[in-house]
Each structure stands twice: as C-alpha cells, then as structure tokens.
Amino acid sequence: MLCLFVIAFLLSWPTPVAPMYFYLTNQKPMCFIEEVPDVTMVKGTYRITGEKGKDYTAESIHVEITDPSNNQILSRTYTADGYFTFTSHQGGEYRICILAQSNSERSRVHLDFAVGENAINYGEVATKDRLNEFELRIRQLQDQIQSIAKDQNYQRIREEYFRQLSESTSHRVTYWSLGQLILLCGIGLWQMRHLRAFFQAKKLV
C-alpha cells in the first residue's frame, strides 16, 4: 500500500501532454482503440476547426463507442467543441469512432484522451463536496492509488490470459507434432509392408 502511495505521489506531478490532431473527411469516421481497466472513467476532449486552424467547419460531431464484447455503449451527437465521457464496465479494448457532420470536405480535429483519475474534474469535486485544498489533494491521491491498483489488476488478468493462451498453443503444437510423428511412422510401416509384398510377388525375397 505504501508503495502505491509513493508511486501515486510521484505521478501527481503535472507533465504537459500535447493533444493529438488529425483530419476527418466528411462522412468517413476515424476510430481509435483505448485499452481500459474495469470500472474506469474515460474522457475525450475535442475541438474541431477547419484546415490550418480556420473557423469551425463542423456543425456537430457523432461519437460511437463499443466495448470489448462489441456491444455499443454510446452513440451520441455533440457540438463541435466539447467532450464525451464513459465508464468501462469490463476491462479490455474499447473502440471509439468519431464522425464530423460538416458541410466541408475536411475538418481538423484536436483530441485528447484522459483515463482514470485524469478524467475527473477536481474543481467540480471540490465545489460539490466542499473540500479544502488539503482534502482535495488527499482525494486525488486516493483516486490515483485506486487507478494504479485497477491497472495492476488488469495487467495481471491480461498476463494470465496470455499465459493460458501460450500454454494452449504449446499443447496444440505438441499434439500436432506427435500426430505427424505417428502418421510418418504409419506411412513408413505401410511402405515397408508394401515393398515386402512386392518383392515376394517378384520372388526377390
């Protein structure tokens, strides 16, 4: 627990991260894969402009999200500048597709994903729960510790899955090799019997 607290404290120092941007062609969605632990909040903040930073060209943006089981958990239209959120109900890869609904042929999209405690607006939390600066800091550290614990648990589950997959593949390879060996032995015995019968028929043996 102390180790998690220390890690959370070190991770609490702010590090600047530049949001990515890409271009959307009208009526052609752009999709992303976000790997998320169980019961974790994800926030996508976006801003759509014209090419080279011109005025907005999109009237709205449509977001569709599917879970690891390929079930749609979100399908909603938003304004051209804002954010969307969802909370994972199972660990795995979530597919996030974005479609700009615009009269322009191409729009520039600035997008930034935040996962776990990074997706929480602590200003709103402090106002809602009436927390002072120290209490808010403790809340942030608690959320970070929970996020680290969830991520570690998710990684353990993934490691166990790949271990079982590796063992299953290894067993299949072993069985396949044994099957090939038995088949080759059977073919060899058949050829020997066939040649022996042939030589006997020719009275060579």
From TrEMBL:
Sequence ranges assigned to domain GOLD in this UniProt record: 29-138
Name recorded for this polypeptide: Transmembrane emp24 domain-containing protein eca
Subcellular location: Membrane
Species for this entry: Fasciola gigantica
PROSITE patterns for this protein: GOLD
Statement: the UniProt record of this protein carries the keyword Coiled coil: yes
Keywords: Coiled coil, Membrane, Signal, Transmembrane, Transmembrane helix
GO annotation, cellular component aspect: membrane
Bilayer topology: Single-pass type I membrane protein
